[in-house]
Design a protein that fits this description.
Elements: H1 2-19, E1 24-38, E2 52-57, E3 60-67, E4 70-83, E5 89-104, E6 108-120, E7 134-149, E8 155-167, E9 176-186, E10 194-207, E11 218-230, E12 236-247, E13 257-270, E14 273-282, E15 285-295, E16 299-310, H2 319-329, H3 332-337, H4 341-353, E17 368-380, E18 384-396, E19 415-428, E20 433-446, E21 451-465, E22 470-483, E23 490-502
Helix pairs in contact: 2-4
């Protein structure tokens, strides 16, 4: 972590020295204090349940700066918890840091980001407030780039990124460091309504620990593509791309390489409605996707299907994903509707699925075919806001023909299916008081092992502004799981009372 901090400060120093102008700074400091009770701290079945009370303090700060040639933001929180059934303290950290700078005008750029987050170590196992099955995930990226925007709107860029992922817990299969090289050139407005883009990528990642029976532990991918976009009218924009991709992973026995193509259209029939749909073929088979959105004054609806070959580490080192997640997660309306941070993060993840950016914590760190269908309905009034999210997701490593070199007879973690729905509602009772509720459920399946979990949850919360700098919340939650093995069934009821000081 010290290295991450040093990198961010070095980057900030470069940005400040080149701007020659003072930055516009803003900051916030928060001190949440919580007490709670659960009747099933260990998420066990029947008479094996153990009740616990706890207290938690989680001081944190947010700092941001905007200058003509650089922007920076850091959000950090440290949580310390004491439980009645455990003599030792428990702590964790949350970090989201982003830095973007223009070192030399219209030529040299430097971006960096770092995160600390908590993820389930095994997606099919529960994670209660006691922290079992949770691991800390640390990620960082430093990305210098040569980028030039020409007068005719054409653009050229070459970027080299160094990135890394590490984690706590017992599963370190995805830990390691990598390098990514991206290059591209765009015709911009040179060809009137036709825009051409030529791009190439090279991504290499080295694992810290041996994977399967491989002699070396490295994944390597390369791709190149030519894309064309034609503006037929302000409402219709067809596009197509043709390229070549190659994967040669030392952790896998198969090395697919093949040309691929994709064609689609963006259609905007009105200012409120848009549709983007495409179809293509690549080494994993046929691929298609669509993204439909319809916005009204109080009502919004989105429906999206996304299909891609991915790895579990991609979202941790993707600055675009991190920026979108943080923006949605900090949305004031969403915070009012879903005050619980964990529930809000899960909802944001579902919303991001429609853009192909949803964080994923399933599978060993292999390539897998990820398919998801997500629908989100949102309705708001002057005093209330509500949302309904329905989703289906299938993550299958076997479909991309990359079996482990050492074999995995059980097929554990190679194919996971998820489907579910969640309803969230918030209502402003008065100037200082708001009510929130949530109800939902999901089904998690691992076909190879026959494991299936059916989860339902409900929550009810009350928020109150006590003063200019202090607010409070009270929340009741119930979780229920019915598994294929009754020994993994559990129910949990919990109460959480919190006070948050903001300065």
């Amino acid at each position: 972590m010290n290295m991450l901090v040093r990198l961010l400060w070095v980057g900030c120093g470069v940005g400040v020295s080149t701007s020659g102008l003072a930055a516009e700074w803003s900051s916030v400091f928060t001190v949440p204090v919580s007490v709670g009770y659960t009747d099933n701290a260990n998420l066990a079945a029947g008479d094996k349940k153990q009740d616990e009370s706890f207290w938690r303090i989680a001081p944190g700060f947010g700092l941001s700066a905007k200058a003509p040639h650089w922007n920076a933001s850091v959000g950090y929180a440290y949580s310390l918890e004491q439980r009645s059934g455990d003599a030792s303290h428990h702590d964790n950290q949350h970090l989201s840091a982003q830095f973007d700078s223009e070192v030399a005008s219209n030529l040299l750029f430097l971006d960096a980001n770092a995160t600390i987050s908590q993820q389930r170590e095994n997606v099919l196992d529960a994670a209660g407030f006691s922290g079992q099955n949770l691991r800390d995930v640390y990620s960082w990226t430093v990305r210098p780039a040569l980028r030039h925007q020409f007068a005719n709107a054409s653009r050229a860029e070459v970027a080299v990124a160094e990135y890394g992922v590490s984690s706590s817990g017992s599963n370190h299969a995805g830990d390691g460091m990598g390098e990514r090289v991206n290059a591209g050139i765009s015709s911009g407005g040179m060809l009137d309504a036709l825009r051409l883009d030529l791009s190439g990528n090279d991504d290499r990642f080295r694992y810290d620990q041996p994977v399967a029976a491989a002699a070396a532990n490295e994944t390597h991918s390369q791709s190149a593509a030519l894309s064309a976009t034609l503006t037929v009218s302000p409402r219709v924009t067809p596009y197509a791309s043709y390229g070549y991709e190659r994967y040669y992973d030392t952790v896998a026995s198969a090395r697919p390489s093949q040309t691929y193509w994709r064609a689609g259209t963006m259609w905007v029939p009105s200012a409120r409605t848009n549709l983007d749909a495409n179809y293509g073929k690549r080494f994993s088979g046929e691929t298609w996707a669509f993204n439909f959105r319809h916005n009204m004054r109080r009502f919004n609806w989105s429906l999206a299907y996304v299909q891609d070959v991915r790895t579990g580490r991609q979202d941790f080192v993707n600055p675009e994903s991190l920026a979108i997640f943080n923006s949605l997660n900090d949305n004031t309306s969403l915070k009012a509707a879903v005050p619980d941070a964990a529930a809000r993060a899960a909802l944001v993840g579902l919303l991001m699925q429609s853009q192909g950016l949803a964080p994923i914590t399933v599978l060993a760190d292999r390539r897998y075919l990820d398919r998801s269908l997500t629908s989100n309905l949102a309705y708001s009034t002057a005093k209330s806001n509500s949302s309904l999210t329905v989703y289906w997701r299938d993550s299958d490593a076997n479909k991309v023909s990359l079996p482990w070199g050492g074999g995995n007879p059980a097929g554990a973690g190679e194919h996971i299916g998820q489907k579910g729905a969640g309803l969230n509602w918030g209502y402003r009772l008065g100037v200082n008081t708001s009510l929130s509720a949530g109800l939902g459920g999901n089904i998690e399946q691992e076909p190879a092992s026959g494991v299936e979990n059916r989860n339902t949850y409900g929550r009810l919360g009350l928020s109150y502004v006590l003063g200019r700098h202090v607010s409070g919340t009270a929340e009741f939650r119930r979780n229920d799981r019915r598994a294929d093995d009754s020994s993994r069934d559990y129910t949990e009821n919990s109460i959480l009372l919190s006070l948050v000081g903001t300065f």
